[in-house]
Design goal:
The structure is a single chain. By secondary structure, this protein is α/β, with parallel strands linked by helices. The protein folds into two domains: 120 residues, Rossmann fold (3-Layer(aba) Sandwich); 48 residues. The chain is 52% helix and 12% strand. It has eight helices and five strands; from the N terminus they run E-H-E-H-E-H-H-E-E-H-H-H-H. Strand 4 and strand 5 form a beta hairpin. Helix 6 runs antiparallel to helix 7 and helix 7 packs across helix 8. The longest helix is centred in the middle third of the chain and has 34 residues.
């Protein structure tokens, strides 16, 4: 029986420090570093690479630990699907101080209701954040300010990409691994590499 952790932030490590979650996972459930699955993805995204890997790897009797429901998902529907996986595989799910024990394949009504309520609040919080963002963007347009991300150029390439690019350049890691280190998609890595290599040729 193994203990696994899952950590998630919405934006890359230049803006959010995922290591705090890792430290909390180790303290909370005794998770070792090699058993922590982590990624920078939106909590509303259903098809997350590291979460899917974790759910495929766990076996009967294993435990999954997360610091809070919103780290696993901000979708009530997806949370229900994950709970079904936990029940089917006879797992234990620890969310902060809340323990969901499905080692016998069952879940009592009280725990099930509390878990779903936590999922509803996580989704509601996300919707409220989205509303505030839309309101802020509308206000910025009214006041003539530019919105959205600045155009990507050599001046604003992430420092973490520049730091780890030599590993890719000398075939120590591939594009997928570089994307994971940088906390961005493979599509973004292709853009970064194109800009950086064009700059290097000048």
């Amino acid at each position: 029986m193994a203990i696994y952790g899952y950590a998630r932030c919405s934006t890359n490590e230049n803006k959010q420090d995922i290591n705090r979650q890792k430290r909390e996972l180790k303290a909370l459930g005794g998770v070792v570093e090699k058993n922590i699955y982590w990624e920078y993805e939106s909590g509303t995204k259903v098809d997350r690479i590291e979460l899917n890997k974790l759910l495929e790897r766990v076996a009967e009797g294993d435990t999954i630990v997360a610091t809070e429901v919103s780290r696993i998902t901000r979708s009530t529907k997806q949370l229900c699907e994950i709970v079904e996986t936990v029940k089917r595989k006879h797992l234990k799910l620890i969310i902060g101080g809340f323990i969901v024990d499905c080692s016998k394949g069952e879940l009592d009504a009280m725990t099930d209701g509390m878990l779903k309520m936590m999922g509803v609040f996580a989704e509601m919080e996300r919707n409220m954040i989205s509303e505030r963002v839309r309101s802020g963007m509308a206000n910025a347009v009214i006041n003539g300010r530019q919105i959205g991300r600045p155009k990507l150029s050599e001046e604003n390439l992430p420092s973490i990409f520049i730091k780890h690019y030599p590993k890719y350049r000398y075939n120590q890691i591939n594009k997928t691994e570089l994307a994971k280190i940088c906390g961005v998609s493979r599509q973004s890595i292709y853009k970064y590499i194109g800009i950086y290599e064009k700059l290097s040729r000048q």
